[in-house]
Amino acid sequence: MRLLQVLCLLPLATAFGSSWYHNAFPWQKPLSGSTVNGVHFPSLLDADLEDLAAGLEKGLFTSVDLVTAYTRRILEVNSTLKAVTQLNPDALTIAAELDAARSSGAVKGPLHGIPILLKDNIATADKMDNTAGSYALVGAKVPEDSTVAAKLRKAGAIILGKTNLSEWANSRSKNYTSGWSATGGQTEGAYYPQQDPSGSSSGSGVAIALGLALASLGTETHGSILAPSDANNLVGIKPSVGLTSRYLVVPISEHQDTVGPMARTVKDAAYLLSAIVGRDPNDNYTSAIPFPTDQPPNYVSACDYFALGGARIGVPRNLIELDDQSFAPILPAFEKALSTLRSAGATIIDDLVLSGYETLKKENFSFESIVMNTDFPRNLASYFSQLTINPHNILSLKDVERFTHSDPREEWPLKDTLAWDRAFNVSSTTSDAEAWGNYTALQRYAGGAEGLFGTLRRHSLDAMVLPTLWSTTLPAVLGSPVVSVPMGKYPEDARKLKNGYGNQWLVAPGVPFGLAFMGERFSEKRLIGLAYAYEQRTKVRGQVRPYLVPRTEVGDVVVGKGKGRGTEAKDCTGIAERKG
Ligand SMILES: *[C@@H]1O[C@H](CO)[C@@H](O)[C@H](O)[C@H]1NC(C)=O
Ligand SMILES: *[C@@H]1O[C@H](CO)[C@@H](O)[C@H](O)[C@H]1NC(C)=O
Ligand SMILES: *[C@@H]1O[C@H](CO)[C@@H](O)[C@H](O)[C@H]1NC(C)=O
Ligand SMILES: *[C@@H]1O[C@H](CO)[C@@H](O)[C@H](O)[C@H]1NC(C)=O
Ligand SMILES: *[C@@H]1O[C@H](CO)[C@@H](O)[C@H](O)[C@H]1NC(C)=O
Ligand SMILES: *[C@@H]1O[C@H](CO)[C@@H](O)[C@H](O)[C@H]1NC(C)=O
Ligand SMILES: CC(=O)N[C@H]1CO[C@H](CO)[C@@H](O)[C@@H]1O
């Protein structure tokens, strides 16, 4: 009943707008698993892949138990946080099949029988929809699984459900909040009441932060894996564009879109990345992958405690200095991180200046805006053309806009569609030659001598680091990778800051943030090693705890089997009331 109390107090606490309740509940300690009848079960809040795989191997619990436990956890917090929008109605059946396969010795690999959530813009050819958060796509069907979903299934993963997102991956307008979609409502972060969950992979961030599945796939065009990983105490890998296929993923820009893992540990993210990389004839950007199809890098073995030894790491301070200083409370933790990197054997090359970034900023990032806006209507239409069932006959961005203006559930005009109007304007007035001119200018400033790649090479760097918040722009436009890992949380005396709509907290005591490692295209393996070595020395995730934690553990499910224990929901607004 503790969770019930916390949830019921939440509106009161918020009304006072203070942070007292952060310390007021001493029972909100890290949960470290449960011991039932002398048997120890891992805590789902923190369990990693190896914990779950070991439990499955030893027969401590089954994949059916895991699906049951995660589903209960999802329902416990969903009406407050709205992180998960759909549950896979076949998940239990799939789990039972994978349990049977395991019993007969047919284990597909480390992900066998492990529940994973997908952002609701990554399509699956099953009973679930792929909506991008819009009613325009409810009921629409794809001809087959997206390549990344197919690869996860082949690796034995159970696709447990879909996660909420900023509608259309945040491409609709500037006036809706991170984590809001028409179909999913408003996602909230779990580290402070009414925490802005960041976006656009908001539901993935919140769900994995709370252990509602082992891990999730998110998508990124500009910051959409990194920012919610940052704000939700997660490891996020934004892969090089082309490393993972975008086939049957709702697009924004072929030049910038990428699909990557969001997980609680670097190694879990590495396991997931290993499962989803590779060339795909349905996404020709994957032909840029520089390694043979049958010899992908071993991202898991890259997880080496000593990877920082001898590494050369740059710090492009001007990217921080050019920003407003509302997020400055991050900086002491960043300085501490730099000394951790040094003491682990890295050489820090500090005070680098990427003046190309300053130029892009002076141009109001218009080159990127023109590249994205010329890609968007074309790439989106190409996604729609592949649908096999399309209930509203949505074939273009214009159709999406018409639908959005006519269906009141889309909350237009309160949430406008001006970004689409801009895309129409730009794409109809920009020639291919001009779009190419903007693309090459963007690459030159972002990646040339005064940009990321030029500076990495000039100083023979393995990587550059920044607080994740400031890391997203150059890798977004360059299609280069970033690994973000938890670095700290805002201190008790941090000056609280609301988002632009005044309804959610961006900065508040206890809200997490991360450290980003940026590198050359296809340097994921090296970045994962560096991030792992940092993570193992700091283990920040375990020191940053959510204010709200679902209570069901896999041990409860195992022990409660056949006894009809009703632990589905403890949420004030949910089923709990009906159950009494
Ligand atoms: C989660 O909550 C939202 C909003 O209340 C609801 O629409 C959705 O169906 C819920 N998802 C699940 C999986 O229960
Ligand atoms: C992929 O194909 C499209 C259209 O066929 C083409 O415009 C684009 O340049 C190709 N991209 C790569 C990376 O090969
Ligand atoms: C960038 O935006 C500012 C403020 O809106 C404007 O004054 C300036 O002229 C813009 N710069 C360019 C190069 O468009
Ligand atoms: C969004 O912008 C429209 C005008 O473009 C305005 O009418 C509406 O109130 C704004 N909504 C919010 C939530 O700011
Ligand atoms: C699009 O172009 C029209 C006509 O030039 C203009 O009135 C409108 O403000 C533009 N909209 C946006 C969002 O740029
Ligand atoms: C970028 O595109 C615009 C048209 O939208 C064009 O006027 C401009 O010249 C292009 N810039 C470059 C550097 O090619
Ligand atoms: C697809 C789906 O589950 N949609 C539901 C999500 O949430 C809204 C409310 O926030 C419901 O009305 C939808 O039915």
From TrEMBL:
InterPro entries, alphabetized: Amidase_dom, AS_sf
Signal sequence, start to end: 1-15
Pfam families reported in the protein's UniProt record: Amidase
Keywords, in A-Z order: Signal
Domain named Amidase: residues: 65-350
Protein name as annotated: WGS project CABT00000000 data, contig 2.1
